[in-house]
Structure formats: C-alpha cells, structure tokens
C-alpha cells in the first residue's frame, strides 16, 4: 500500500514538473535558441531576411554549409560601434538611476501603508494596484498631455508663479524618469510593503524597551529587516527598465536611445534581424547577473522562512 | 531559602513599584480596573490569572508600552506617566522572545548596551558575562534561527538582563518550552533572581509555575486583583470561592452558620449532617458561607470512624495518577466531592473500588470558611 502510494505520487510529481517544463522549453528555450541562431546569421534581401536558412533536404552536406554560414560578425560589429555601446550604457544608467528614485519614493509609501491598519491598509494597497486596470500605453499618452508645452504641468507651475515661461519637459531624460518612476512604482511598493507588513511589531517594542528611540529602532531593526523586500523591488524594476521601449520612445528625446529603442529600430526600420538578435542576446547576458542575484535572494528568503 | 524575606509585612519598607488605582480600557473593554499593588525590591512577584484577565496589560503598563487611562504608576519613587519605554529602568522578556533575527546572539544581548553608548570593551565584557550567566558561551556568533527553543529563551533572558534593570518584566517566559524544560528553567530563574537581587515580575497563566517561582502572587480576574499573598497563603487561606477554585482543586460545600462557640463554628450544609469547623471571627448565626476543602484534606474510609464531620457517599470514579489517586464521590445528599489519596505503598488490588459505599471525614481545622 505505501509502495503503490509512493509510486502514484512520484508519477504525479513527474506530471507536475513536465507540464511547466514543456511550457518553458517550447515557449522560452526554443525561441531563445532561434534568436541565438539568427544573431549568428547575415542579413539578406529574402524571406526570412537572413542567411543561412537550414534546409532539411540537404542532408549532411546541407548541415555543413549551414554551419559554415554562421559567424560572430554581428557581435564584432556591436563591439566596434560606439552607438550600440552608448545605447547599452544609457540603458543601464537610466535603469540604475530610476531604480534608485523608485527606492527613495517607494519606501516611504510602502512604510506608510504598512503602518495603517485593517480596511485603510487594504484600500491603500488597492490604490497602488489601481493603475494596472488602465492600459499602460494610455497612461503614458496621458503623461504626454501633462508634460507637453501647454500641458497641465506647465500651466500649473505658471499659475503658481513658480516659472515665467513654459518649460519643455517632453523629449528629455527628465520625462523618461518621470514616466519610468510612475510606471514601475507599484513593482517597488508591493514587495516592500509585503516585507514591512510581515515585520513583527514586538521587535520594535523590544528595541524601545532596550533603550532605542523611534528613529534608532527604525534604523537598526526595520531597515535591515526590510532589505530583502527592497532588493526584490529593485530587481523587479531594474531588469525590465533596462529593456524598456515604450516610455523612452514616447517621452524621451532623440539624442541617445535606450537599447530597447535601438533594437526596435534595427528590427523594424532597418529590417536587420541578425543585428537586432545580437543586441537582444547581449542584453540578455547583461541581465543574467541581476536575475541570478534575484533568484538567489528569493531562495535565501524561502529558506530562512522555513 | 525564602524564609525571612517578607518586606510586604514591614511597614517601614517602601515599595519599589507602586501601582495606584490604575485603569486601562481598550475601546469598551476594561482590561485593568482600578487596580492597586505594591511590589518590593528583590521580590519575585507573579501575576496569575485566566487569559484576558488583564495581567499582560498591567505588565505592559509597567514597561511603558501602554499608558494608564487613570491612576498612577511609580517606580523607585518616580512617577512613570511621562517616561517612555526607552528611558525606564525596566526591561522586558517577551513571550515570543522578540529576538532580532538579523543580529547574532552577542549583538542581541549587546543591543541595549549599544543604545546607552557603553564603551566597546566594557560592552564586550558585559555580553560575555551574560552569555556565561545563561550558559551560552558557545553560541555568541549564531543567529537566532540557528538556536533551539530553550537556547532562544535564554538569549531573551540574557538580553533583558544585560542592562541590569531595576525590574525585570517576564511575559509568559516559559510558555513555549516543553514541560520538563519548563520545570528546570523555573528553578534556574529562581536561582538567577536570588543571585542578581533584581526584582522580577512574571506574568503567567500556569499556577504551578507562579507558585514555584514567586515570593508573592497576585491572582487577577477581569482587571481586578482578587488576592495578593504568598503561594502558601493563597492555597491554604483563599479569600473567596473564586480564588479557592482557581488555585488548585477544591470542594465547595454551601451552608449556613447555626451556632458560634468560642472554639468552633457549626453549620447546616447541603451536604447533609451538621458540620463543625474551627472558630472564625466572621461567623455569626444565619450567615451564608461556603466550606472550601482541598481534595487532600478529606479522608476516605469504608467504615465510619468517629461522628464528627462525616459525609456518606458512593465512589463514582477513580483516577489513578501514579503518585496520587483521585476518588470522585457522589454524596448521599447529591453533589460530587473529590478526594485525593497519596499512594504510599504499591497497591495489590483496589482497597476501594468504584461503586463502593464510603465515608468522608475531615478535621474541623482542615477547610476554610468563605463568605464570598
């Protein structure tokens, strides 16, 4: 009886692993390999717009010509073109700075929500999630109307006599930061809130009992214990912001492009699928570090909880 | 060990903690209701009561986590009303221990010393001393989650003692330990308290624990102190039916005083015959009273011996607990009485069996006559 039970359980465990495994292979690993392959190809005026294309009918000889057609020339081109390097650096810089702003703005919000009780807390969390109910694109277009020359922001600032003439907010890095911080704030606030809300309030009582004033207790107890949440929020924002396309494309200027825009340009405007694929592969490699860090952190959190 | 220590009986002694008509409400619930209490230096005082009786609220008011709605708390002569927790000469050991999970054992113990900016060398020495006190020298570098429950409890104790507080407040400190460890730790706590001379105030719902460790205990119910006395006094001379029933097992027999003599009181009881008790200054004819008899104060026999204070009945249940046996006897007049007999010698067969007719007797001085 126990043997049969174990057997049945091990079979169902296999099924449980197999389904998401299959999903990941078909929808993640295979596309990744296709992109990797395209990044090693050359652009061509053809359908699809690159060579070599693997020909099943060619047999061994066909495979040989296929393999000899692959090269790393696209990566060499990326490394030698300052335009691409500048684009990568710009993306990393914007992502890092935006993440820092998100931390500084998101932490007090999350802390404030965690301090409230009962229904007020549920309501505030709802307010954080509420923007998700509207299309992301529409919300960014709304920012255009707010930031434009005779938009809401300029009129308000002139009305308050803070500025004399309208400031051109749009098409600047400032606009990109505003858009990014606005769009990603929930991703920062929610993990921080989850960590802060779980914090045992008796720890702060113990700190007070041992002689720590409020701010000292915050500094030595609350802050260090909320670091896992801050790290989760930071990575949850940093990783997608590096590859962000919509916000810089709609709100940003044209002087330097973020890597998402460069990729879009190569793919759609220049129809250079191989170089676009190479850009994507390099971007993936750049993000593997932070992603691995995130995964490691989550695993550690899970372990410390058990 | 505790023979001569009785500052509460000395009128020249000033209390260290003085709670004066303190009331605390939470919404519509009165957690502490006009409570007054004096606790003396070097005393081990236990607050005992059922859950929700307000004992923890009282402790938290002493620590400064709650402020009284009315009344006054004085500590060493100083009014505590405006003194925040971080400036009180008290330290608390929390029921959940509340150890800082991101700090090592040594850093947890040294946390309070850091707050008062004690120099590094002195602080390290004090932490080492505390680690030795609770026998955790080998665990200084570990984090709380790497410790067993008993070790965590000792870290919490060491952390609360590290600042050498005037008063150590303990909120159900042993509740999370298993029974055997709890008994050992109770004795360790007593030794520690005597050695350090610190005043301990412990909150517990476990009466055995309170009676083991405390010099005096306060029995609380619904925000009020029902009785404050030494464990022996509370057990042997409870001042009310509630206290008698809460502390230990008791048989309560209702009756009316019919005769007051210089050396005895006689009452008519629902249990049947006229009962004869030791003299009591409160007794006057016609007074409604309750006789409180502990199970061990009754003798159980199968044949009548003597004529004073004899209750006839039939054994309805026997519980064999190893050291003692509990007999539940249904009296001829109705009502159940519990009798406990110490099993002094190994029993071969049952001298008294279930359903046997038995007689219960007790000495006139055995029980307590209660008027409320």
Q: What attributes characterize this protein structure?
A:
heterodimer, A: 306 residues, mainly alpha, MetI-like fold, two-stranded antiparallel ribbon, 13 helices, globular, B: 372 residues, alpha+beta, Rossmann fold, OB fold (Dihydrolipoamide Acetyltransferase, E2P), 2 domains, 6-stranded mixed beta sheet, 5-stranded antiparallel beta sheet, 34% strand, elongated
Protein model, in words:
- Chain A is an all-alpha fold and 306 residues long.
- Chain A has a single domain (81-305), classed as MetI-like (MetI-like fold), CATH 1.10.3720.10.
- Helices cover 77% and strands 1% of the residues of chain A.
- Chain A contains 13 helices and two strands, in the order H-E-E-H-H-H-H-H-H-H-H-H-H-H-H.
- Chain A has helices at 2-39, 59-68, 73-80, 82-115, 118-129, 136-147, 152-159, 173-198, 201-209, 214-242, 246-251, 259-269, 273-305, and strands at 42-43, 50-51.
- A two-stranded antiparallel ribbon of chain A has the order 1-2.
- In chain A, strand 1 and strand 2 form a beta hairpin.
- In chain A, helix 3 (73-80) crosses helix 13 (273-305), helix 4 runs antiparallel to helix 10 and helix 8 (173-198) packs across helix 10.
- The mean pLDDT of chain A is 89.
- Chain B folds into two domains: 7-244, Rossmann fold; 254-370, Nucleic acid-binding proteins (OB fold (Dihydrolipoamide Acetyltransferase, E2P), Beta Barrel).
- Chain B has helices at 55-63, 105-115, 120-133, 149-161, 179-196, 207-213, 231-236, 241-246, and strands spanning 17-26, 29-39, 44-48, 70-75, 78-79, 90-93, 167-171, 199-204, 216-221, 224-229, 251-260, 264-269, 274-278, 288-293, 299-301, 310-320, 324-331, 336-342, 357-361, 368-370.
- Chain B has a six-stranded mixed sheet, sandwiched between helices. Chain B has a five-stranded antiparallel sheet with strand order 13-12-11-14-20.
- In chain B, strand 12 and strand 13 form a beta hairpin.
- Chain B is elongated, with a radius of gyration of 25 Å.
- The mean pLDDT of chain B is 89.
- The A-B interface holds A 200, 202-203, 205-213, 216, 220-221, 224-225, 304 and B 63-65, 84-87, 90-92, 94, 96, 98-102, 111-112, 115-116, 145, 159-160, 163.
